[in-house]
Specification:
By secondary structure, the chain is α/β, with parallel strands linked by helices. 40% of the residues lie in helices and 17% in strands. The chain has twelve helices and 13 strands. It has a seven-stranded parallel beta sheet, with helices on both faces. The protein has a two-stranded parallel ribbon with strand order 7-10. Strands 8-13 form a two-stranded parallel ribbon. Helix 1 packs parallel to helix 2 and helix 1 packs across helix 8.
Length: 349
């Protein structure tokens, strides 16, 4: 049985990916400092995994704690690492750049050094479509020019460059860098989902909080873009499709011809902010009050993925629709209005 270390495994993307890995027959060791995640998510993943739940172990560790990380690598031989751990709020990164550089870069450097020291040289890295900046042309292909518009994006781009440099220096490494687009939804059970701490910095978690009455209205930044309805257009992908993309990437690391490769994970289709809101209103039966505001600095007009490379080489394709995403998001939100802190969730776990 293959053993995979998942950093940031208790977070939104991490928890869904850990579940899909367990169901696919992997043994999973999670390290997470619980900065923007919840231990409850790990209990629930274990329950959802059923008989495979016993193949999960969880460690409360910050990646910058080299001694603790060394201990984990010394006690277990890992076949590969999936690296999610990192701070990810664009606005916060602009206000606190040092926090982002310290956490995301030093955490990653420490991880890579410890991996190398223990002879584990297979990595799937959680990158982001933010590395495309404001694309001059869409869809974004893996060869599109790279530029980051904020410190968060710069940390992702720096880590990508770091991986390319490491591979150039030592071809024993096998690395897959996954650039994701906009994640939406939750596990269809409604048992795990996105639970951002503080003010959500993405569209759909915000919509979800308005729908359950935690916030009064959704602020739409910019309704004068050159798009179908004036609002920004993004590529939204269901979290389960994304998680399955990581399982596919992990399998691809066994390909002897893999060096350091990049893949987009998206649907290849753009959807506007208002189209997403309408789809959510339709499945939830909730009216989402809107407040129109000016454009946010650094926001691109239209961003969506070219997904041909992932479909061809990873044998992976997103299968869930916008309606599926909104339905599963609402299922999670209505069962857990305050995320993992919901009153009933404390009883269940």
């Amino acid at each position: 049985m293959k053993v995979v270390l998942v950093t940031g495994g208790a977070g939104y993307i991490g928890s869904h990916t850990v579940l899909q890995l367990l169901l696919a027959g992997f043994k999973v060791v999670v390290v997470d400092n619980l900065n923007n995640s919840s231990e409850v998510a790990m209990h629930r993943v274990r329950e959802l995994a059923g008989e495979f739940g016993s193949n999960l172990s969880v460690n409360m560790v910050d990646l910058r704690d080299r001694a603790a990380l060394e201990e984990i690598f010394a006690s277990t031989q890992f076949d590969a690492v999936i690296h999610f751990a990192g701070l990810k709020a664009v606005g916060e990164s602009v206000q606190k750049p040092l926090l982002y550089y310290n956490n995301n870069l030093i955490g990653t450097i420490t991880l890579l050094e410890v991996m190398a020291a223990h002879g584990c040289k297979k990595l799937v890295f959680s990158s982001s479509a933010t590395v495309y900046g404001w694309p001059k042309q869409v869809p974004c292909t893996e060869e599109s020019p790279l530029s980051a518009l904020n410190p968060y994006g710069r940390t992702k781009l720096s880590i990508e460059e770091m991986c390319r440099d490491i591979y150039q220096a030592d071809s024993e490494w096998k690395m897959i860098l996954l650039r994701y687009f906009n994640l939406v939804g939750a596990h269809p059970s409604g048992y795990i989902g996105e639970d951002p701490h503080g003010i959500p910095n993405n569209l759909m978690p915000y919509v979800q909080q308005v729908a359950v009455g935690r916030r009064a209205a959704l602020t739409v930044f910019g309704n004068d873009y050159n798009t179908v309805d004036g609002t920004g257009v993004r590529d939204y992908i269901h979290i389960i499709d994304l998680a399955d993309g990581h399982v596919a990437a992990l399998r691809k690391l066994d390909d002897p011809n893999i060096g350091c490769e990049v893949y987009n994970l998206g649907t290849g289709k753009g959807t506007s902010v208002l189209e997403m809101v309408k789809a959510f209103e339709k499945v939830s039966g909730k009216k989402i009050p809107l407040v129109m505001a000016g454009r946010r600095p650094g926001d691109a007009e239209i961003v969506y993925a070219s997904t041909e490379k992932a479909e061809r080489e990873l044998n992976w394709k997103a299968k869930y629709s916008i309606e599926d995403m909104c339905r599963d998001l609402w299922n999670w939100a209505s069962k857990n209005p305050y995320g993992y802190q919901s009153q009933d969730s404390t009883k269940q776990s």
